[in-house]
Amino acid sequence: MTYMASRSLNLVFPQWQGSGKRKYLYYGAKTIAGELSDGARYIEVDVSMEDDIRLEKGIWGYHQINEQLANARDIIEKEHPEKIFLIGGDCGTEVAPVSYLNKLYGGDLAILWLDAHGDLNTPVTSTSHNFHGMPLRCLLGESEPTLVVQCFSALRPLQVIMGGLRDLDPAEAEFIEKTGIVCLKVRDMETDEGRMSEIIRGKRFHNLYIHIDVDVLDSGKCPWALCPAPDGISTGALMRMLLDLKAKFNIAGISVLELKPVEGMDLGPIKRLVKFCEGI
Q1: Is the pLDDT of residue 5 over 60?
Q2: Can you identify the CATH homologous superfamily of domain 8-278?
Q3: Which residue, of 7, 34, 154, 176, has the fewest CB within 10 Å?
Q4: CA–CA separation, 276 vs 280, rounded Å?
Q5: Is the pLDDT confidence value at 1 over 60?
Q6: Is the pTM of this model over 0.70?
């Protein structure tokens, strides 16, 4: 029997090294946690602010990312939550929370990856060598071994459902085709309400983790993603889907990631997301 704890963890992990040498995502995570959380209790993962970002083991900032993953693991192990709300930073911050919850729930965990990008590269296939394009592949057990070994558990491709993909690298597209990972297009999420819950129910999962990179949203109306992409999902459609999923599954974890703060930006849609996430 899997041990179930009795508390939730609000985790701020302002890692920026996974996206390159600029600190945009550090300030994005701090913006969400500091200005939008209305005093909720958060625990923050310590991250390095040193500018010395080097290419090691095929990953920019590998040294810092590896140490920060260990810091996140330590916090999660100490808190031993049954639910996690993650505010990132780059998408690499998902590695510890997702692998922990997957272990806690004994593999009965669907992973809904809402992102314009696949995040399915390895250090070998990546052209940028930025880790924020690799975390989902790492969670599936294929990446730099010293990072994979820090995962609490490994996912199976069957557990992953991807939504909103619009910018895949060839190696990512090949991996999706090979593994049969289910992908739902933006137009399906906009027009076919309840489709995502049908897919998850069809896979016989009861618990759900939702990864939200803000670049899944339409860049025309929400231009605050680090890597914006056109023709994304509307905020309204996203919120309707999230509410439907909450009514039908135990949301064990959820994240909001990759916000690039812009002066004068409209934070209303992000605040709606945060309020939903705090209520899982």
Answers
A1: no
A2: Ureohydrolase domain (3.40.800.10)
A3: 7
A4: 7
A5: no
A6: yes
